[in-house]
Amino acid sequence: MPKAPEQNIFHTYDAERAGQGCSCGRHGSQRQHDTEQEVLRQTRAQDVEALTDDVVEESVMRALFPRMAQRRDFLRAVGKNTARAAIASVLPLGALQAMAQEKNGALEKKDLKIGFIAITCAAPLIMADPLGFYRKQGLNVSLNKTAGWALIRDKMINKEHDASHFLSPMPIAMSMGIGSNTAQMRIATIQNINGQAITLHMKHKDKRDPRQWKGFKFAVPFEYSMHNFLLRYYLAENGLDPDRDVQIRVTPPPEMVANLRAGNIDGFLGPDPFNQRAVYDEVGFIHLLSKEIWDGHPCCAFGTSEEFVKQNPNTFAALFRSVLTAAAMARDPANRALVAKVISPAAYLNQPETVVEQVLTGRFADGLGNVKNVPGRADFDPVPWDSMGVWILTQMKRWGYIKGDVDYKAIAEKVLLLTEAKKHMKELGQPVPDGAYRKYSIMGKEFDPAKAEAYANSFAIKRTA
User: Fold this and answer.
1) In this predicted model, what pLDDT tens digit does every residue of 90-136 receive, in sequence order?
2) Which among 95, 125, 294, 403 would be 20 to 30 A from 379, CA to CA?
3) 3-state DSSP call for residue 231?
4) Secondary structure (DSSP) of 386-399
5) Residues 6+ apart with CB under 8 A from 4
6) Burial, 420: exposed, middle or buried (Cβ in 10 Å; 0-12, 13-18, 19+)?
């Protein structure tokens, strides 16, 4: 039986939610918002179907009326019940909600272990647990917080985890047998785009020119990471050889702030919330957001092994739908404060909510006395573009991780499951983009995936011959 519209956790049918006093825009103050939301969460925590229905209804309303003023005028004109009935007459809400709950075939495996690192990049994968998106698909998921990326890799190779949070270059490297035994992995979704930063120790606040960084020690979370490749790119574009002019150390993300505080490193290009945590702890400042290097770059991914996909196709499809549903919710800026509250507790990120919220909303202190507003600081576009895989391979070639000829497109298309992602996005009623290969601008230099080899060889600073 349909729930009363006023019970919707997003207040989808409330014409008066247009106030500016809180994160959802409905309350006079953030305190009123938090109080009501907590009551709603407690009463609806056990009602997973109702929560998923809320997400569907809110998404439909936002699609039909992108501007708040349009929604308000419509709702005031016709009222809550008429609005819901009118929308349902045009769009089959019941069918959409049923689709979100649909299990396409019997699940081969319901009890799953998924590894993750406690960073905001994993927001869709994490929030799918407390918000019930896994349970909605009939899955009983145990999220296993893992200490570092090498351990994530090893647990996937040893089949201790069924699926995992990955750095997006990791499945490519693992599938090629680079840095580990060969293990065929697949990327289902990109977990996040942007969302990283270069953070420096406070003692370097007068050294904002990278040409002053010779001899610096930097941390990145893993060799096969966008952090490593973006830091190398940034340094090289500023005339520094990342292998000769600085030191780059692999450091687990949770240890980056402590190493910065101790003076073991001068800075890091790392994941949030640790850039913001360095500011919060007054030991570092944000020099540059990664989106200023490449706006829209991939960072983390969600995936599993080829063997798991083949042996558990229905389970894998259910996982796909769960994470895509969470990503769609995380993409909406109106939900960012809620996402921060959901993923901050000890079981997940174990970070102050204010730190996580600054990252996700893009309104943050930079450690230099400024409050910045960058809405795209972190985002959650799940599309695993093949061109992203090709760019990663060009950097692996550039820095000597790959020797000899590289079939860029064949490798990217084998690892990144773009076709499957589009299929499931369409099933869920999500916008499906065209194509597979996009051109990118990275620090003003165009990357054309059709000219990958020439691109890899075009840089003045590189390890390739």
Assistant:
1) 555 455 444 544 445 799 999 999 999 999 999 999 999 999 999 99
2) 95
3) helix
4) HHHHHHHHHHHHHT
5) none
6) middle
Q: Token pair for residue 392?
A: 């990663």
Tell me the C-alpha distance between 322 and 413, whole Å: 23
- Confidence (pTM): 0.80
Of 124, 144, 53, the C-alpha closest to 93 is 53
Question: What's the pLDDT tens digit per position in 48-69?
Answer: 455 556 666 676 667 667 677 7
The phi, psi pair for 330, rounded to 5°, reads -65, -30
The neighbouring-strand residues paired with 115 are: 144, 164
Amino acid, single-letter form, for residue 244: R
How far CA 125 is from CA of 19, 169, 190, 325, 342, in Å, comes to 31, 18, 11, 10, 12
Q: Name the burial class of residue 262, with classes exposed (0-12), middle (13-18) and buried (19+) by CB atoms within 10 angstroms of its CB.
A: exposed
Q: For residue 93, which phi and psi values (nearest 5 degrees)? A: -55, -45
Q: How far is C-alpha 372 from the geometric centre of its chain's CA atoms?
A: 21
DSSP state of 329: H
CA atoms within 13 A on the CB side of 167: 27
Whole-angstrom Cα distance, residue 232 to residue 235? 5
What are the CA-CA distances from residue 358 to residues 232, 290, 460 (Å)? 27, 16, 37
Q: Which of 325, 383, 336 is nearest to 133 (CA)?
A: 325
384-400 in b/e burial notation, b at 16+ Cβ within 10 A? bbbbbbbbbbbbbbbbe
What is the H or E stretch that residue 339 is in?
Answer: helix 336-343
Buried/exposed 172-211: b ≥16 CB within 10 Å, e otherwise:
bbbbbebebeebbbbbbbbbbbbbbbbbbbeebeebeebe
What are residue 440's DSSP bridge partners?
Answer: 447
Q: Identify which of 331, 339, 328, 303 has the alpha carbon closest to the alpha carbon of residue 420.
A: 303
Largest CA-CA distance found in the chain, in angstroms, rounded: 69
Task: Dihedral sign for Cα 221, 192, 436, 320, please.
Answer: positive
